[in-house]
Amino acid sequence: MSRKTKIAFWSVVAAQVVFLLVFIGVKENALRAGTEVILRALPVDPRSPLQGDYATLDYEIGRLPA
Asked: Which of 16, 25, 54, 58 could share a disulfide with 42, CB 3.0–4.6 Å?
């Protein structure tokens, strides 16, 4: 492998690592500085004869007042 090819390869690898670190940093900052929201969950029948047992949650905020 030529010197130019090695430099290009490691430049691409470094750019990908930097991109991933920036992406993770932005997401961590959003989690750290964000506002916690607590939603009341309403249970829905978790048993279906065709699909078996599953969990479905319905949220009070998803229902619009009349």
From this structure: 58
